[in-house]
From TrEMBL:
GO terms for biological process: negative regulation of DNA-templated transcription; regulation of secondary metabolite biosynthetic process. Keywords: Metal-binding, Zinc. Zn(2+) binds at residues 96, 99, 132, 135. Binds 1 zinc ion per subunit. Its cofactor is Zn(2+). Pfam families: FUR. Coiled coil: none annotated. This is Transcriptional repressor. The keyword Metal-binding applies. GO terms for molecular function: DNA-binding transcription factor activity; transcription cis-regulatory region binding; zinc ion binding.
Length: 138
């Protein structure tokens, strides 16, 4: 696993105790997590502190947001070397209609899309929905 404190320092983030806990929680998770999921994992933590931690992580390309259509923003760790640039670091996400979990499919990159002149992309999110490998039994 990634050495959390070194990874954060390399991204310009001070590795506080709470930031390290949240980072490790996300690193050990195989699925994207909501703020509520993270809050439930740290019952004694303040919701505002957790939100600010996620916002800092997002601003420094440590995590990225996923809108999987459930109405709840989910967060997942970025890969090493990711800078969350729309031109180069986009990958698929998969939301299981059965277990309701969302995962990053980082090995499956979204190709660059050439927009017409005058259009400027600021965000992109491609979520496939179906049945995951665990739920399908394959």
């Amino acid at each position: 696993m990634i050495q959390a404190d070194k990874f954060m320092e390399d991204k310009g983030v001070r590795p506080t105790a709470m930031r390290l806990l949240v980072f490790r929680f996300l690193a050990e998770s195989k699925t994207a997590k909501t703020l509520s999921d993270i809050e439930n994992a740290f019952a004694k933590a303040d919701r505002t502190t957790l939100y600010r931690t996620l916002k800092t992580f997002e601003d420094k390309a440590i995590v990225h947001q996923i809108d999987d259509g459930t109405g709840m923003t989910k967060y997942a760790l970025c890969e090493e070397g990711c800078n969350c640039a729309i031109e180069q670091d986009l990958h698929l996400h998969f939301h299981c209609n059965n277990c309701k979990e969302t995962v990053c499919l980082t090995a499956h990159k979204i190709p660059h899309i050439n927009l017409p002149d005058g259009y400027v992309a600021e965000d992109a999110n491609l979520v496939l929905k179906g049945i995951c490998d665990k739920c399908s039994g394959q």
